[in-house]
Design brief:
Blueprint (H helix, E strand, L loop, with lengths): L8 E8 L3 E2 L10 H14 L11 E5 L11 H8 L7 E4 L5 H14 L5 E9 H4 L12 H11 L7 H4 L9 H12 L3 H20 L10 E2 L5 E2 L11 H5 L20 E11 H6 L6 E10 L8 H13 L8 E4 L4 H11 L3 H4 L6 H4 L6 H16 L3 E8 L3 E9 L2
Parallel strand pairs: 3-4, 3-5, 10-11
Antiparallel strand pairs: 1-8, 1-9, 2-8, 5-8, 6-7, 9-12, 11-12
Length: 406
């Protein structure tokens, strides 16, 4: 075990809500700020001696900071927790928003500008996003033109040819189709990976692995929501093969080999090594390095490649040094393409308890959900080094490397 230095950033506790299916699952009647309140309350409750006056900031990620999730939602959450003296800031790096909050705490601690930070993310897709904004499955003229450009091997938006500004937030499903074409990832490969995710997640739910991460959510009617409700145990390759393409009549991406839309929140406490030692706190993991990268929006699914390479280089590690890797499963195709580019041993290292295809992807909450799952996996396997990484809508990638301490 590494010796903890005063300026190390260490994770003391994590928690997440169960993940609900958007517009039809268990969290449809819970606001995003209330989901976050309950996740942060769970983290605070795990550290009885924590003085909130010592917390320098509450940093909250969300991909849709509008409507009920608008204004500065982090500050709303701080007051909902009853801490008027706790400042808060809301961050948007889309799918990586809550890893961004963790990175900000890491940087502040390294810079000597704070010792304790509450970080996390939340997303109520059910309430914050209209039904068509997160996934339009109709084959309109624009979609068909996009697909024809893909089939012809042309960029979708090339300002050198037509003077158009690239469309950073093109339909995510279209980006997945482009990655499939460029990297030769077949429909069969995608379906096989999706079935694996469902099987591993179902096993993790059945054996109590997922329960160790989850804090129950009290619903408006007083009942408790306690279990992720997007999992489809018993999913078969035969059933997946029957699904029609979701984003193009000539495509390979379906509702079965992509993540669903979801609601949920996650949170963590990140403190300095100095603060942990002074207050008798037992760190779960040390943040070793982080990185962010950018790439063409059309292939945003490959975001984990460069960001992971940068984070590993900063840590002085190679991909084979990692015991566990969590890549967010926005689409099976982008996970497979990224894993191949990085040289990941899928059977030994990657998403060994399933991923977002089964568990779900509440955009702003996923980053710290991955961190909690990674630490949980390292503890369960008695392993040491892990990395969590995501592709990010708009053409970015983000990664964080952790060393388990306890």
């Amino acid at each position: 075990m590494s010796t903890i230095k005063d300026d190390d950033a260490v994770i003391i506790a994590t928690a997440r809500t169960p993940i609900g299916r958007a517009r039809k699952g268990g969290l449809v009647n819970v606001r995003g700020d209330e989901l976050a309140r309950q996740a942060f309350a769970a983290v605070i409750g795990k550290i009885p001696g924590l003085s909130i006056s010592d917390v320098d900031d509450l940093m909250l990620g969300t991909a849709a900071p509008e409507g009920e999730q608008g204004f500065n939602m982090a500050r709303v959450v701080a007051t909902l927790l009853g801490y008027d003296g706790l400042p808060g800031t809301t961050v948007n790096r889309f799918c990586a928003s809550s890893i961004q909050t963790t990175r900000m705490a890491f940087h502040a601690i390294r810079a000597g500008e704070g010792d304790a930070f509450l970080v996390g993310g939340t997303e109520s897709t059910s309430r914050a996003l209209p039904p068509t904004s997160a996934g339009n499955t109709t084959f309109d003229d624009a979609a068909l033109r996009t697909q024809q450009a893909m089939l012809d091997g042309r960029p979708w938006h090339d300002p050198r040819e037509d003077g158009l500004v690239p469309d950073a937030y093109i339909q995510m499903g279209h980006t997945a189709e482009y990655v499939a074409r460029l990297h030769g990832v077949s429909r069969a490969d995608q379906d096989e990976y999706a079935a694996r995710s469902q099987r591993l997640a179902a096993d993790a739910q059945a054996n109590g692995f997922l329960a160790r991460e989850i804090t129950s959510v009290q619903l408006p009617d007083g009942s408790l929501f306690e279990v992720d409700d997007s999992l489809r145990a018993g999913t078969t390759l035969e059933a997946l093969a029957q699904l029609q393409p979701a984003f193009s009549p000539v495509g390979t991406v379906t509702a079965g080999n992509a993540c669903p839309l979801n609601d949920g929140a996650s949170a963590a406490l990140v403190v300095s090594g100095r603060y942990a030692k002074a207050n008798g706190l037992t760190p779960l993991a040390r943040i070793v390095s982080t990185a962010v990268s950018g790439l063409s929006p059309e292939v945003m699914g490959l975001g984990p490649v460069e960001s992971s390479q940068r984070a590993l280089k900063r840590a002085g590690l190679g991909i084979d040094d990692l015991d566990l890797i969590e890549i967010n499963e926005a689409f099976a195709v982008q996970v497979l393409a990224s894993a191949r580019e990085l040289g990941i041993d899928i059977d030994r290292q990657l998403n060994l308890r399933g991923g977002a295809i089964a568990i779900g992807h509440p955009f702003g909450a996923t980053g710290t959900r991955l961190i909690g799952t990674l630490i949980n996996g390292l503890q369960t396997d008695d392993s040491t080094l892990g990395m969590a990484t995501l592709c990010v809508g708009g053409g970015q990638g983000m990664a964080i490397v952790l060393e388990r301490l306890n």
